[in-house]
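Deliverable D2.4 — example input (structure tokens):
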């Protein structure tokens, strides 16, 4: 008996799992503030928590108007290296508005990693301090 069919089942299951994660992002709720994520290649920035509570989808945040703390994880790939760093960051903003779209933008320069929160016009309105990074 060939092992090829036996290996195909787990691989197909994994591909289906990944495709579910990469499904369409739902339409923004106009009564909420929407926060999208933008990372630098080859890094991955994921939404983790709002005010200490886990989010359902790591690709964005949706929050009520007002004051919120956003926690993110950055999976940083080192160029020319197989090692990855997992970095935790936090941003706080007190003026989220219903129906507004915001973007949390990751940037890195050398060993410094940060993220800034931009409003719908691309203006920086808040920023993280340095991320806390550990080998992944």
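Example output (designed residues):
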């Amino acid at each position: 008996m060939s092992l090829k069919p036996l290996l195909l089942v787990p691989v197909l299951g994994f591909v289906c799992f990944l495709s579910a994660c990469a499904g369409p992002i739902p339409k923004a709720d106009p009564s909420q503030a929407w926060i999208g994520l933008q990372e630098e290649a080859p890094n991955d920035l994921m939404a983790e928590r709002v005010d200490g509570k886990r989010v359902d989808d790591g690709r964005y945040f949706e929050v009520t108007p007002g004051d919120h703390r956003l926690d993110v994880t950055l999976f940083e790939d080192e160029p020319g290296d197989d090692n990855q760093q997992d970095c935790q960051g936090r941003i706080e903003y007190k003026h989220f508005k219903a129906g507004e779209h915001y973007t949390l933008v990751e940037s890195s320069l050398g060993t410094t990693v940060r993220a800034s929160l931009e409003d719908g016009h691309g203006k920086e309105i808040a920023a993280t301090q340095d991320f806390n990074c550990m080998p992944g």
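The chain has one domain: 31-135.
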